[in-house]
Specification:
This protein has 186 residues and is of the alpha+beta class. It has five helices and seven strands, in the order βαββαββαββαα. The strands form two sheets. Strands 1-3-2-4-5 form a five-stranded mixed β-barrel. The protein has a two-stranded antiparallel ribbon with strand order 6-7. It is globular.
Amino acid sequence: MPAKTLSQPDSSKADLWVFGYGSLMWRPDFEFIEQAPARLIGEHRALCVYSFDHRGTPEKPGLVLGLDRGGACRGVAFRVAAKRRGDTIEYLRAREQTTNVYREVMRSVWLENEARQRVSALAYVVDRGHVQYAGRLSLAEQLRLVSQGHGRSGNNRDYVLSTVKSIEAQGFRDPQLHQLAAMLHE
């Protein structure tokens, strides 16, 4: 299956904004010149992607976050200098597109900083037609998958708990993720 990517994103001479809503919030692993709390309208953060690579295997899948349609999502926007744009996109594709479960898109996000400006940011939105799309799972099923998941990036439990910690550091809560984190602590 070919990667779902932007057409010619490397050609721009402008800085690049990247919207993080999961592990990108706490482990961006790319060089940026600014970060700001941000809100994306029209999609929400959800544990809706079976992980066969980073946090699970095909035999024992984990569960990772995706942006799924509807609602809104608070996260972090990172501004990447224009000269780092191509390298950053290449890195993000290698990280986020290992199985092509996400669509690489540009979305408007509102920065929750002093300027309160709207910027266009690169974001990774779940492809609902992909075999790894889990859809809406019960909390019990999420707990089961997260508890069993372990992949090349580590254990699934740590991924969820690190994301919750990052959300709290930004000064907000994600009720469903916080409920799952409480269950993982038990």
